[in-house]
Amino acid sequence: MSTAKLKRLKAASWKAGNARDFLQLSDEEAMLVELKLMLTDAIKASRQKRGLSQIDLAKKMGSSQSRVAKIEAADPSVSLDLIMRAFFATGATRRELQRAFGAGEKLAA
Amino acid sequence: MSTAKLKRLKAASWKAGNARDFLQLSDEEAMLVELKLMLTDAIKASRQKRGLSQIDLAKKMGSSQSRVAKIEAADPSVSLDLIMRAFFATGATRRELQRAFGAGEKLAA
DNA sequence: GCACACTATGTCGTATCTGACATATACTGC
DNA sequence: GCAGTATATGTCAGATACGACATAGTGTGC
């Protein structure tokens, strides 16, 4: 497993599963976490691809730079709602959304 | 347009766009709304397909029947997080998630 | 080294979402 | 008509996420 992913998984040590031994999250919770990671990756990629700074994106979506940073870091304090808003705000289409989800299939290994 | 969809769009007259004329929501907001509608449909279908009542699903996800009802009705008071949690709790896979998103493509007409 | 742009992290008051509960409605079989 | 089951709707106190701000870290050109 890539250290990058590990690092972020640790960073994202989710609220819900945190107290339990380690990785004691339900399947659903785990899927949700992975989903968020995939999306936040996609957001960062989409934003950079379009040459936007976090500040630019924040303005587009009526938020702040710090929150965008948290979004991209998959901070536990950001909701899927906000993540999706950010994703679309980068200019990403639904087709790209589907692709982002498809990307997850490969992560199983 | 099917009256069913219209009715639910009205029901889902979203918080954010509500005050503005009508359908004065940003593209991103609109995409988010449509996304939610697609997902809530998929949840209801998935739940029924597996022969679960709203109460069953509520127990599975540690919530209440009333909230499940709101989820399926795409009530403005439910978050995407909760919607996704419900979706996975029905037993739906990520493949089904992708299909649910794909279903939206056809709605453009 | 400093100035500058970008990004990361922590905190705060307020707004929104949460499960739980009460209650209403809809549809059965009796 | 009346139980019983499923679903819908309204409300509330407590939990969580929000934007905003302050500030720290990181990189780059001078």
Task: Compute the number of helices of chain A.
Answer: 7
Query: Please, what is the average pLDDT of chain A?
Result: 76
The appropriate CATH architecture of chain A is Orthogonal Bundle
Structural class by helix and strand composition of chain A: mainly alpha
CATH topology of chain A: 434 Repressor (Amino-terminal Domain)
Oligomeric state of the chains in view = homodimer
Keywords:
homodimer; mainly alpha; 7 helices; 0% strand; disordered N terminus; DNA-binding
Describe the structure.
The structure is a homodimer of 109-residue chains. Chain A is mainly alpha-helical and 109 residues long. Chain A has one domain: 434 Repressor (Amino-terminal Domain) (Orthogonal Bundle), CATH 1.10.260. The first copy, chain A, has 7 helices and no strands. In chain A, helix 3 packs parallel to helix 6 (80-89) and helix 4 (54-60) packs across helix 5. The radius of gyration of chain A is 14 Å and the shape is globular. The N and C termini of chain A lie close together (9 Å). Chain A binds chain B through residues 27-29, 31-32, 35, 61, 79-81, 84-85, 88-89, 94, 97-98, 101-102, 104-105, and chain B through 27-29, 31-32, 35, 61, 79-81, 84-85, 88-89, 94, 97-98, 101-102, 104-105. Chain A binds a DNA duplex (30 and 30 nucleotides) through residues 15, 53-55, 58, 62-70, 72-73, 75, 77-79, 81-82.
